[in-house]
Amino acid sequence: MTVPQQSVCRVYHKPLDVRNALTEFNIPKSYIVDAAQAGFVERLNATVHDPVTAAGTDAWRYAVRSFRSALDELGWRQDDPKNLPLSINDELRVSVTVSSGDRDTGKVYGKPKTKNPKGALFDAAIARNTRQPDLFPDLLPEAIREFSNTVSYKTWVLLIFISETEIRAELSLPSSMDHADRLCEWSERIIIDVPLPDEEKVHDDVNDDDDKDDFLDKIRPKF
Fold first, then answer.
1. What average pLDDT does the segment 70-79 reach?
2. Which end of the chain offers a freer environment for a tag, N or C, measured as fewer CB atoms within 10 Å?
3. Percent of all residues in the chain with a pLDDT value above 70, rounded to a whole number
4. Of 87, 63, 68, nearest in space to 167 by CA
5. What's the CA gap between 115 and 131, in Å, rounded?
6. Is the backbone of residue 128 left (phi > 0), alpha (psi -120 to 50) or beta?
């Protein structure tokens, strides 16, 4: 586990800065917006008859599907080491994965964490992100060295936070995990403004008796 350490974090949130930062990845902002909105829609589609974890799982799953599918069209390749869904650009030497974030996700002055714990593979990713393998290869724990070749490039995380009334997202570079194995420190954060989806994008699987607020009533799907 990578021990948390305070570090300077560069945050991009102004529209021009965000656009320029995403240009470095050759990733259109719309791909991130579409992925986050896909997760929102699927979370909304969960019913009382589903497993209690369905809303969160489906929100993440469909966000991953949308994002990876879009990057695939741009020539990125996919890999799933230890079931971690990576999209990899060998030309740019960068990897990206999607993760659920906490309520600080997408907030300019927030200190976001991943919603769920990560494992040794992300220890290796953080070591790569912070250049530890180049500096101290023999001093790294065995669990990290095991994945040092698997995680060949810097690994960014598309963090997405979804509630019934809000979507927030950011593309960020993790630099450490906390003692609960959640990513908690970042060296760069690109804040993505994600609007709620239009009514046409909302699927038709939400129960009539769901207790939604006024906004969700407006986007309630038609049966």
1. 96
2. C
3. 77
4. 63
5. 25
6. alpha
> Exposed, middle or buried by CB within 10 Å (0-12, 13-18, 19+), for 205?
middle
Cα–Cα distance measured from residue 221 to residue 213, given in angstroms and rounded to the nearest whole number: 14
Kindly tell me the sign of the dihedral angle through the C-alpha atoms of 72, 103, 127, 9: positive
Q: Which pLDDT band holds residue 149 (cuts at 50, 70, 90)?
A: low
pLDDT band at 208 (very low <50, low <70, confident <90, very high): very low
Tell me what the mean pLDDT of segment 101-128 comes to.
92
- Sequence letter at residue 126: I
Q: Residue 175 corresponds to which amino acid?
A: S
Q: How far is CA 57 from CA 116, 199, 205, in A?
A: 11, 22, 16
Q: Output the pLDDT for position 127.
A: 84
- For residue range 8-56, list pLDDT tens digits in order: 899 999 999 999 999 999 999 999 999 999 999 999 999 999 999 999 9
- Write the DSSP assignment of the chain as a string of letters: -PPP-----EEE-SHHHHHHHHHTTT--HHHHHHHHHHHHHHHHH--TTS-TTHHHHHHHHHHHHHHHHHHHHTT-EEE-GGG--EEEETTTTEEEEEEEB-TTTT-TT----BSS---HHHHHHHHHHTTHHHH-TTTS-HHHHHTTTTS-SEEEEEEEEE-SS-EEEEEEEEEEE-TTS-EEEEEEEEEE--PPPPGGGS-S---TT----HHHHHTPPP-
